[in-house]
Amino acid sequence: MSQPDSIQIERIGDVFIVTLGPGYESIEGMLVKQAETELLHVIEDKSCRVLILNMSGTRFFGSAFIESLIRVWNRLKSHPDSCLALYGLQSYCEEVLTVTHLNQIWGIHPDRETAIAAYQSTKA
Question: How many C-beta neighbours within 10 Å does residue 10 have?
Answer without folding.
Answer: 13
